[in-house]
Amino acid sequence: MVLEEVKTQSKRSQITIFFIFALLLVAAVIIIFLARDNFNIGGIPSNMEPVYNTFLTCLEEETLTGISILESQGGYIELPDFISGSSYMPFSSQLDFFGNAIPYWYYVSGNGIEKEQVPSKSEMEIELGNFIKSELRNCDFENYYDEGFEILVGDVKDIDVDIRDENVQIKVRSDLNIVKGEESLSVGNHDISVSSKIGTLYNSAREVYDYEQDNLFLEDYAIDTLRLYAPVDGVELTCSPLTWNAQEVFTNLRDAIESNTLAIKTRGDDFSLTSEENKYFIKDITVDGDVRFLNSREWVYSFEVSPSEEDILVARPLGANQQGLGILGFCYVPYHYVYDIKYPILVQIFLDDEIFQFPLAVIVQGNNPRKALETSAVDFQLPEICEQKNTEVQVNVYDIQLNPIDKVDVSYVCFGTKCHIGETSSGTLKENFPQCINGDILVKANGYEETRLQYSVVQNGKVDVIADKLYEKNVVLKIDNAEYNGQATISFISDSNTKTIVYPEQKKIELSAGQYEVQVYIYKNSTINLRATSREECIEVPRSGIGGILGLTEDKCFTIEFPSQIISNALSGGGKQKYYVAESELSNFNTIEINSRPLQTPKSIEELQNNYALFEDRGLSINFK
Q1: Which pLDDT value is given to residue 5?
Q2: pLDDT for position 328
Q3: Of the candidates 369, 395, 424, which is a domain's last residue?
């Protein structure tokens, strides 16, 4: 009886539960049906949906803005600290591209240390996330405020950025509260996907950069351009000197580098259709997107050439005026110049409407490419001595009247290594120097002669340096007191340097007070025709076979052929004269008048050789006017 009653109560309970569940389900359906016009599919009230869509659009726009900055600034939004260059190495840490600062991915700092600034993809994601976080509260909801909405965007609690090849995924945790009248909406998680090829572009940029670091192909192009557009090595059959204006050489190089850099391309699908001539400019780099290499003559450059005489490269003839060589019967001019060249290249990768770009430095030293970068940055051409600046020295720089000279560049040279120290202020520099015995303090200032002073840095000290002022003077060349406007080279040679001008194209020279040997070579048109000749030369070589083992030798002879040549310019005047140029002459007079005696215009090789012999004993008359 009791058992039957329990069963009846259990059945009644089940019926009650099912009845309640059915009522709730029906009520839910009715509510949804009645309110279906007030909600969208995502559960956001339809009248609030435009507000939320505006927020998502703002999030997308800020993401795209951040992506654009990353692409235009080599993967950076917040730029690394700016580091300036120096006279030794002109690169700062950033390239100024039409007012847009782009960090170098590779450069050499002003104190000669190799630097890499290649951002990783994860670092780019962090920078993009920080940018979105800082900009998201600036979304514009003004139109909705006028409609009675109250909108509050909370601080970003967390943000996750995932840069992919075809898009960027953004997940933001930030409370967004929207209120209008009795209705309200609160959303805490916001996910969007932004279409962008930044991931693919970055991968392509890394491919190009890594290929350059492994192969230094940009330096190879630089060396080819150097040898094609500048005098490097060679021999010319002539009896007059060869001269080049260094500034003109560098201008030609700069123009050639700019145009040749633009011609460099990467391998594309139509490579097989490319002419053999143009294949020289195509590198075997296969990446997604089109690659362009840019250089501008307006960007920072550094050119150095040695040996040079101020701004003139002079190669003097050998043969007719060399003892023991005159019997060869011809003149020749050998030359060999060593260049250091440094300039930037901007790499741009295009894909659809997006461009990713980064700059890097191209460096040629001693006519050779720099060494490929190690896995970690190392000293570049500078030993540790330049980093061990631990001894304070005060350098005072004065002119000959003991007036302090401002903005003088001061360096210290120790065992052939040049360490940049700094610049004077009010004639004084107080900085730490590396310790060195018998090093040289080197001072350079505009309008003054470069000055060296031997100074051992072993303890704190003070040194005074006197710099000689440079004076620009007009040069007038005469032969037997009659003004001469033909071809000549005029050199002022001192113990420390040589200043040369090519006359009459150049009629000004900068000199400081001091002892010089003045040399004037005057050349006139001539038509000396040298026939082709040959001469037999014999050298002693080990015998072949057993005789060579026993140390026996024999003569091996060969014939040297000398081609014919026509000497169109020959030495026809000039001479040498030692002369002390006084400070009073430089400060009080504007013109240096050099008077020379003529030599017979040679018509044969014998007369040319005789002119060179007479030249050695010919003096000059030098007057300041």
Answers
A1: 47
A2: 44
A3: 369
d(CA 458, CA 555): 59
Residue (of 366, 317, 308, 337) closest to 232 by Cα position = 337
Specify which of 80-84, 162-166, 413-417 reaches the highest per-range mean pLDDT: 162-166
Average pLDDT, the chain: 82
Same domain, 484 and 539: yes
> Is the model's pLDDT at 284 over the cut of 90?
no
Q: Are both 347 and 394 inside the same structural domain? A: no
- Burial degree of 84 (CB within 10 A; 0-12, 13-18, 19+): exposed
Q: Do the Cβ atoms of 519 and 493 come closer than 8 Å?
A: yes
For the chain, the domain total comes to: 4
Secondary element (H or E) of residue 33 = helix 2-34
- The mean pLDDT of 312-333, rounded to a whole number, is 62
- 577: Cβ–Cβ under 8 A, 6 or more apart, which residues? 517, 518, 619, 620, 621, 622
Q: Are residues 239 and 351 located together in one domain of the fold?
A: yes
Is there a single domain that holds both residue 595 and residue 546?
A: yes
CATH number where 455 lies: 2.60.40.1120
Among residues 121, 106, 115, which one has the least CA distance to residue 70?
121
pLDDT digits (tens, 9 = 90+) for 361-419: 999 999 999 887 653 333 334 446 777 888 999 999 999 889 999 999 999 988 777 88
Per the domain annotation, does 91 fall within a domain?
Answer: no
Structural domain contains residue 337: yes
Q: Which of 1-5, 121-125, 267-271, 380-384 has the highest mean predicted lDDT (pLDDT)?
A: 121-125
Digit-coded pLDDT (tens) for 468-512: 999 999 999 999 999 998 888 898 988 878 888 889 888 999 999
Cα–Cα nearest to 493, from 485, 501, 481, 503: 501
Distance CA 243, CA 73 (A): 44
pTM > 0.90: yes or no: no
Quick one: 460 and 482 in the same domain? no
Same domain, 418 and 498: no
Cβ atoms of residues 566 and 530 within 8 Å = yes
Q: Is residue 107 part of a domain?
A: no
Distance CA 518, CA 593 (A): 12
The 3-class SS string of 379-437 reads ECCCCHHHHCEEEEEEEEEECCCCCECCCCEEEEEECCEEEEEEECECCEEEEEEECEE
- What are the residue ranges of helices labelled H in 147-197? none
CB atoms within 10 A of CB 382: 18
State the residue range of the domain holding 180: 49-80+117-196
Give the strand pairing for 389-398 and 368-369.
unpaired
Query: Which of 416, 431, 466 finishes a domain?
Result: 466
Q: Do 511 and 558 fall within a single domain?
A: yes
Residues 564 and 607 in one domain: yes
Considering the domain boundaries, does residue 461 fall inside one? Answer: yes
Q: If you ran DSSP here, which 8-state letter would residue 211 be given? A: H
